[in-house]
Design brief:
By secondary structure, this protein is an alpha/beta fold. Helices cover 37% and strands 16% of the residues. The chain has a 6-stranded parallel β-sheet with strand order 5-4-1-6-7-8, with helices on both faces. A two-stranded antiparallel ribbon has the order 2-3. Strand 4, helix 2 and strand 5 form a beta-alpha-beta unit. Helix 1 packs parallel to helix 6. It starts with a strand and ends with a helix.
């Protein structure tokens, strides 16, 4: 098994699932810098990243751009369908995919991939189908923990550490 693509949900995985609004109505989200470095490292290893999220947000679009995530889909109702179309374009199979999600709208996507991850504070229904329940909560390094799990599993630790030596 070779994981070539990781698929990230946003709210509840890359963030702590809170949505804050300013007095002006601006949406505010907090992203974990450690997750960002993990994503950048994964990409430097020649691997791919996709964000597939149910909500639409300029903030998430900005974060995806900062991290050079080229496969970015928001406002998605059926995440599995979008993933299938992406895999067709990339000529990959579900066996080459790991995904992280935390709630009911992630279920079908998580069930279909080779390895599925959920943060510690995910919905109990999603926990039941996950390959790995992470020790970190969403927004608190869960994405980084997933990436480092994959790096170890794929035998890429030396290459990963060499990126920053």
């Amino acid at each position: 098994m070779n994981i070539e693509l990781i698929v990230l949900d946003v709210d509840g995985t890359m963030t702590d699932s809170r949505i804050t609004y300013s007095e002006n109505g601006d949406e505010i989200k907090a992203f974990n810098v450690k997750d960002g470095l993990g994503i950048a490292s994964w990409r430097k290893l020649g691997k791919q990243v996709a964000i597939i999220t149910g909500r639409s947000s300029k903030i998430v679009a900005r974060r995806a751009k900062e991290l050079n995530i080229e496969h970015f889909y928001q406002g998605v109702d059926n995440k599995k369908e979008i993933l299938e179309k992406l895999l067709e374009r990339l000529e990959l199979k579900m066996e080459n995919v790991a995904a992280i999600g935390d709630d009911l709208n992630d279920l079908s996507m998580l069930k279909s991939v080779q390895l599925s991850f959920v943060p510690r504070d995910a919905s109990a229904y999603v926990d039941k189908i996950a390959t790995v329940i992470l020790s970190k909560k969403g927004g608190d390094g869960a994405v980084r923990e997933m990436i480092e799990y994959l790096i170890k599993k794929e035998g890429l630790e030396k290459k990963y550490l060499a990126l920053w030596a």
